[in-house]
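Would you kindly consider the sequence and fold I have copied below?
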Amino acid sequence: MSMYQNGDVDPAVKALEARQDEIMRKLYELKAAVEGLAKTVTTPDADLDVTVSSSLSSQSSSCAILKATKNLDALLGKDLGALRDIVINANPAQPPLTLLVLHSLLCQHYRVLTTVHVHSSVSNVPPQLLSCLGPKHADSYARHMFQLGFTLIWKNVPKLEMKFSVRNMCPIEGEANIARFLFKLLAPYPSDPALATLVDSWVDTAFYQLADGSTKERAAVLRALNSALGRAPWLSGPEFSLADIACYCCLLQTGSSSSTAANVQRWIKSCENLGHFGPARLLLK
């Protein structure tokens, strides 16, 4: 044994242990990079032409209005050695405003590796769409530094779709469903079934009636919004929720936010004061 009589470890052994620890650390980083690459390769949308931007977003102060943020392991299960990748295919003709807002909120809670790609099925993408998730970060090659991957692919798809785990999960389609998935990474849905149903109802109303409905349907939604906001500051009651994000973004996208009733106008100002909707507003300028 290479031990001194007083119990001290031989310096040569210490050096060997330190070297072994360094090798193991590098192997872990390599494993994370390889598994992250494997996720991209096994995704059917891996035929990407242009990598536009990649960014690291992490802020020390999380959004105070969203409560009880959970650990990613508790939400998604442990995935040791590999970055959790959220891959979203979006049509540039229909930019998903809610996803830009939720991405901004995710960046306040987690270290997010953000990447924007252009698929070969799309010929021209406006510059504001290429930079909608932020600038490139110098450490984007070091995947082990991040908790979550957020990849946006501008592609000619009929409907927004998200792929999270290629092996264990089928794609999620539709902006409403994807928004629900992402919001649950930020805050839990209300434990009260009636309140959870209210949030879901407003989310569906936003996308299927306010955004895609007829003029008559939109007018009915605006009246319902004004009535609900006359009773509470937010659509689901005293707390800001996904219902507010969905309705605000759909209202913004339809261009009818300036001609709404007093309660809705007050709510719009409250939403804008939070600062979460900057990415969506910039995209429409």
